[in-house]
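Let us practice reading a record.
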Amino acid sequence: MKRVFVIVLDSCGIGEMPDAALFGDEGSNTLKSAAQAEGFEMPNMKKLGLFNIDGIDWCEGVDKPSGAYARMAEASNGKDTTTGHWEMAGIISEKPMPTFPDGFPKEVMDEFEKKTGRGWLVNKPYSGTAVINEYGDEHVKTGKLIVYTSADSVFQIAAHEDIVPCEQLYEYCRTAREILKGDYAVGRVIARPFIGKGNGNYTRTPRRHDFSLEPTGTTMLDQIKDAGMDVLAVGKIKDIFAGVGITEYVYTQNNAEGIERTLEYMDKDFHGLCFTNLVDTDMIYGHRRDIQGYGDALSYFDKKLGEMLGKMRKEDLLIITADHGCDPGYTKTTDHTREYVPFVACGAEEFLKPGNYGSRKTFADLGATVVSYLGLKPLSGTAFNAADPVKE
């Protein structure tokens, strides 16, 4: 029974892409910055070949990596979570999702206010932690929703859990998702609940929820599900794909829980794909430019990876990757960064030989590899097993 595990270390890019300057991201390198953290170590990923990937020269690799490894370029016009995940699943987005650097237009906000029955505050790009501390008191006093965006294609709604219960906040997000269509069709509407006693002392809670667009084409998830196999989603994968192509899902509050849920699935019998997103590296450490936190999160994942490797069965294929960059050492912005991402895989060696698979032109090669292993025909991208590794 073939099982594929794909784990996304959210935002763990491995160096600027050639077109990074077009996105304002020259010199970005998420993994290199994270590796500066005190106590950083990823011995399991090192053995598999992470530091042997083309372009990685700040950490020493190993003589004979036990895994298949490569770097993948993003062919889509973007550097956000939705675009990155969709591309690895087979959808290449030539047109970027709309962004709103000056805030959302009056017609959108008027309709939002009319349908929710609440006023709003801010409506411009803002740091998520700063916006609740600067506007939280006014929100608590007036009940107006804090609406903000970022460099990504997002419409974010923040509210104190004592003022707007989470289920009500989620309903407001569903309302916004219905409004934001056509030219205003942002990739995600995000609920950002927070708590706190006031005077600017507020913190976000783990009860964030994303409401994404439905994928614009057929993904590897659809192919696997339509073939009668399982598609298990861990973390925010269900939200990223708007539930399409998924047979079972579990939400998680942090990386530790996401890893534990994945380990539990490794103990179960299923045929198909288990797709996991570990979001802390992006949401908590990348955007907040916390090098030590980012490095600690990667080191923790690597430690738990040892348990995963111990649970792998003969026909299992494990793939570890990322969806974009978010360099914790980058000071020009606090946004995502346009970077290559790693592809590190092990297991199923009769299908995918260990070795260096060079630089790939698209994340879609990952999805092509997954469906090929499961006996299906890729709709986009080129499976890694279509050619032997590059000879060193």
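A brief commentary: The first helix runs from residue 30 to 34.
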